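The material for today's practical consists of a large collection of protein records. There is nothing in a record beyond a sequence line and a structure line. As an example, a complete record with its sequence and its structure tokens follows:
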Amino acid sequence: MTSSIEWRISDELVPYEQALAFMEERVAAIRAGTAPECVWLLEHPPVYTAGTSAKPEDLLWHDRFPVHQTGRGGQFTYHGPGQRVAYVMLDLKKRGGDVRAYVHDLEEWLITTLGRFAVRAERREGRVGIWVARGGGREDKVAAIGVRVRHWVTFHGVALNVEPDLSHFQGIVPCGITQHGVTSLFDLGLMPSMPEVDSALMAAWDEVFADTP
């Protein structure tokens, strides 16, 4: 259950730097035992972020939006209005200490959430993120995953495309993948509100994650 986790939901756009500062503080507090684990659901103003494996040539628009270097894994990704970002700050030492299992659970969380909207979303071997088959061999990414772990406390997290401006993804090679596209719930013909997406995320969390007693 979610009883020991603090859920934060921001209705206003949160600047990327502000979110990073909060995560840094909360990760330190979780490690020190002075604050609870936390999941923060929010949207950012348009921004490109570069993970630790980002290649400079994968940034195609240099002056369109701010670009932030970040310590999470992965390559370039886009955040912006209409995309629900979930920053997940957990103490993995209390949850088995298995980073791969944690990433698998994040994937399962997204898949379960999308299933609540009758979207069949799947993992793909060798590709980060969550994917939707569009027919004719086409597959589009509907959600991104980028994780960082410090002293066994997690931060960064996942990003689910609800209704972002998909043209903004054209400024980067998302996660270094050129052979496939990007989609969203609205692009798939669904029109949930952000509170409905939040409710689905919270309900799916209880199905996938379990607190340590």
